[in-house]
Amino acid sequence: MLPVFLHIESSPNLQESQALQQYIGLTPQLMQQYGGVPIASYDVEEALDGGRSPRAFVVVSFPDREAIYAFFNDPAYQTIIPLRDKAFAHLRFFITSERI
């Protein structure tokens, strides 16, 4: 079975650096409980289409789609969503899988 990836597109809220540090400190441990393994983290240098671009992309591998849903539905994660919403000016999550 091929892994499934969570791609995270984000821009921090620069006025909420404390919330950002708290969120970043809590999230990796929760992801690991569901088999989440960070694969890559990228700073976005430029949007070639001229549009607004996020500041960063992060890629996390999970064993399957259900593990990603379980992570997002975990009560511990649910309690930090208000912190997440303060910490980021822009945040989107994408589930992707490899083509065979």
TrEMBL record:
Record domain DUF1330: where: 14-88
Alphabetized Gene3D superfamilies for the sequence: 3.30.70.100
Record-linked SUPFAM superfamilies: Dimeric alpha+beta barrel
InterPro entries, alphabetized: Dimeric_a/b-barrel, DUF1330
Pfam families given in the database record: DUF1330
PANTHER family found in the cross-reference section: BLR0684 PROTEIN, PTHR41521
Name listed for the protein in its UniProt record: DUF1330 domain-containing protein
Organism: Microbulbifer variabilis
